[in-house]
Amino acid sequence: MAALNVLVVDEFDSERLLETSLRQHGCEVLTLKLKEVNMIQIVQTLHPDVVVLNLYTPSEAVLKMIIEINHSYSLPVVIFAEDQQTETINKVIKAGVSAYIVDGLDAKRIKSIVDIAIARFKEQHALKEELKKTKTQLEDRKLVDRAKAILIKSQGYTEDQAYHALRKLTMDRNIAIGEMAKNVISMAELFNK
Q1: Burial class (CB in 10 A: 0-12, 13-18, 19+), 100
Q2: Is the pLDDT of residue 33 over 70?
Q3: Cα Rg of the chain, angstroms
Q4: Which residues are in the ANTAR domain (predicted)?
Q5: Residues with Cβ < 8 Å from 48, sequence gap 6 or more?
Q6: pLDDT tens digits, residue range 12-30?
Q7: 115-165 pLDDT per residue, tens
Q8: Cβ proximity of 98 and 117 under 8 Å
Q9: With left for phi above 0 and alpha for psi between -120 and 50, is residue 53 left, alpha or beta?
Q10: Phi–psi pair at 3, nearest 5 degrees
Q11: What is the pLDDT of residue 36?
């Protein structure tokens, strides 16, 4: 199994506890100070497996970068912090952080916390993808029903005939049925103008 590539962004740990602990567990680690980092640029360049931050509290700028990272690169983010305010925790969760550990920077626990965060991230990512797929299927089904109604009305087909006509068009053109349904709907709207 390949070594885990970890980007550590550290606000104040002069002992480099995160880096040392992760390296001892076979991870490849790049540590940067919070002041000198544009996380989005670094993530884009390095493609780490996980981003780990060590800071007092996540600022609005850091939260915005995390949101952008999750939107563009979809990878787990772990934050070790001191701030335990409920408002901060809620903001961090909304930003998509996989693990927010308050007052928990303990060398013995770091690797297992990162591993759990990665596993949790993968599970949540899979659920999001499944939800996205289900929504697409539901939207496709609605489009297919509309297209069938158009074919029934315009061609005098039964519901079965309309569906089979749609399936045949789909296979002939080698496109998804939802896409073919959109085409039928678009053509019907064009002719009805």
Answers
A1: buried
A2: yes
A3: 25
A4: 124-185
A5: 5, 6, 7, 30, 75
A6: 766 788 888 998 999 999 8
A7: 999 999 999 999 999 999 999 999 999 999 999 999 999 999 999 999 999
A8: yes
A9: beta
A10: -65, 145
A11: 65
What 3-state DSSP class applies to 40?
A: helix
pLDDT of 107 > 90? The answer is: no
3-state helix, strand, coil in the chain (%, to 5): 65, 15, 25
- Chain centre to alpha carbon of residue 71: 6
Contact 107, 17 (CB under 8 A): yes
Of the candidates 132, 38, 57, 42, the residue with the CA atom closest to the CA atom of residue 97: 57
Q: 119 in the Ramachandran plot: left (φ > 0), alpha (ψ -120 to 50) or beta?
A: alpha
Tell me how far apart the alpha carbons of residues 105 and 119 are, in angstroms, rounded to a whole number: 20
d(CA 173, CA 170): 5
**Which pTM value belongs to this model?**
0.75
